[in-house]
Design brief:
The chain has 156 residues and is mainly alpha-helical. The chain has five helices and no strands. It folds into two domains: 1-29; 47-152, no CATH class. It has helices spanning 3-27, 47-58, 79-84, 101-107, 125-136. It starts with a helix and ends in a 20-residue tail after the last helix. Bound molecules: heme C.
């Protein structure tokens, strides 16, 4: 093979790889799920960073204000709603994870009708620890942050 031809072939394959990478990257849009944390963050739990994605992905599909009536009347859209709605409200007792229904329903066996979320993706390990620590630290949740149904998320 002529050296010039070989060089053109190299160039062409490099070009194809770069284009491939660009296409691949542009395919990664905002609705790709964030990955789960592998350890509990140090320091105070940051609601926006650690709790918000967890609740949106696992709970907001059912516990939004519109669908709450079919789901134990619990809306987890804002802190105020999370602390006041639900058939057995309050489901969060700031400072006391062990008295918070929001924690205990996640621990029930999957076949229990109250086990939340009612999907194979149970909350345990690091995510459970994040939720518990967040409640222990007072369940802080800035008023400006309203959670929405996962289909409405454009940015994590
Ligand atoms: C697929 C829908 C669905 C998802 C997702 C879901 N829930 Fe529920 N949730 C329900 C239904 C239905 C009930 C009512 C069950 C009952 O009353 O027996 C309920 C009830 C509850 C209750 C009890 C409310 C009360 O006051 O009685 C809590 C707490 C709760 N869910 C927390 C959560 C949390 C936290 C998540 C996310 C980790 C979650 N749920 C995800 C459907 C869902």
């Amino acid at each position: 093979m002529k050296p010039t031809l070989r060089r053109s072939l190299y160039l062409l394959s490099a070009l194809l790889i770069v284009t491939g990478l660009l296409v691949f990257q542009s395919g990664a849009s905002a609705d790709d799920l964030p990955t789960w944390p592998t350890k509990v963050p140090a320091g105070r739990i940051d609601f926006r960073k650690s709790v918000r994605p967890l609740l949106i992905i696992n709970c907001l599909e059912c516990h939004n204000s519109e669908d709450a009536k079919d789901n134990g009347n619990l809306s987890l859209e804002t802190r105020k709603l999370a602390l006041t709605t639900g058939d057995r409200a309050p489901v969060i007792v700031p400072g006391r994870p062990d008295e918070s229904l929001l924690i205990s329903v996640l621990k029930l066996e999957g076949i229990h009708q109250e086990a939340m979320p009612p999907t194979p993706d149970k909350i345990w390990g690091v995510r459970m620890e994040i939720l518990r620590r967040w409640i222990t630290e007072g369940a802080n949740w800035p008023e400006s942050i309203r959670l929405v149904h996962p289909r409405e998320i454009t940015e994590w």
